[in-house]
Amino acid sequence: MLTLIIGSVIFIFALYSGFKIKNFYLERKKYYGDLSDFIVYYENEIKSYKLRLSDIIEDFTTFREGVFSSDLKNFLQKTKSGDGADFCFSKKLLCVSDKETVSNFFKNIGKCNLEGELNNIRNFRNRFSERTITVQNKSEKDAALYMKLSILTGLAVMIIVL
Amino acid sequence: MWKYLFSDKVNFLISQYFRENEVCEIRLRRDKPLMVKSFGNFCEIIDVERRCPYICTSQDIERVIITASKNSVYAVSEQISKGFICFDGGIRIGICGEGVMNNKEITAIKNISSLTIRVPHQIFGLTERLGTEWLNFENTLIISPPAAGKTTLLREMCRVLSNCNYNIALIDERGEISGSSNGQTYLDVGKCTDVICYTEKNAVYENIIRSMSPDIIVTDEIYGEKEMDNLYEANRCGIKICATIHAGGMEDLERKTYYSKIINCFKKFIVLSKIPCVGTISKIYKSEGVC
Predict the structure, then answer these.
(1) Residue A70 confidence (pLDDT)
(2) In chain B, which residues have their Cβ closer than 8 Å to the Cβ of A114?
(3) Is A83's CB within 8 Å of B77's CB?
(4) ipTM
(5) Which residue from B93, B112, B132, B163 has the highest number of Cβ atoms inside 10 Å of its Cβ?
């Protein structure tokens, strides 16, 4: 009986770990996706309406949940102080090199005329769009893989214990 | 409102001299002392720690531009090319720097070296000096040199006329008269006033006459032949005009060649002066002669 309980606990723990790792990769996939969506939205809004950055961010994050929306709202709050703000990442979802690219983009956001701003967006998208697709595909695969691995590991340990 | 444009240090230094609602104008020039004006002369702001004038840096200037544009310089680049940015509360920030030309037009200003921040003040009761006769409104032109109080008087005239149930179309090209921002007016321009702001004036005259059916058009700093033509046409449609113009006095005005077209449209001329103080009405003319 005791071994059954121990085995079950180990299996549940392995399942839980797998779930957390899967969520991490899915969050990463969503983060890159939301970042990409924001860049497209930003470009369209400034091209069509020349809306201010604060209005664009507020509109974008109104009905959107997620880590990127939360980071964007924090960035907006900091920029309102007027001292210039760095984009802060609340979770380590981006790779190190991507973090630098994104930070540099947000450091220079809103500081040029329209032509300059659109050029910055285009440069960012050229560098980042393929990377986004690669990371999203990999994250999805990794999420599924780690979930399966955790189930198998849990089952294997459970069987060994039993 | 103007405090948002500056760092805590600059706000602290200015607050040593003036209260927030006493400041009328702030001048920043790169590598030169910070100058602030209340209702009198300019005053050099001293950095009390260093015991010398506070010298403006390029970071101070950049901070004003970024804050005034709300981190969206692209959204105000047209304003910048015209030499100003409008901020909340009717604050106008004049810009000087290197012009970028394209086809003989200024398309941008770069390397901004100086800023003039003008803070509007609403003063109620200014029209009491005009008596009550003026409320049977006739076309009125306020003549004034720069910074003599013409916009403040115009705003008060607009408010009073509007509250006397005249339908006013206020053409507020730089948002200074109404203090408009995001569709909200920060300054009281009256209950019957329709405000059109941040638009080239000559582009709106015809549309506003047709769509808003105003009794009076109120506009600031009329300039150029095209605007004279627009005002002439508006007057011909039966709409009255209350406007201001930059000039030293009637003699200066008569020298402006494009003015002759509508000289007969205006019935009353109010001449302002800075002596002995800003907003002094030095003369009022009626078209028949001096009052």
Answers:
(1) 92
(2) 74, 77
(3) no
(4) 0.78
(5) B93
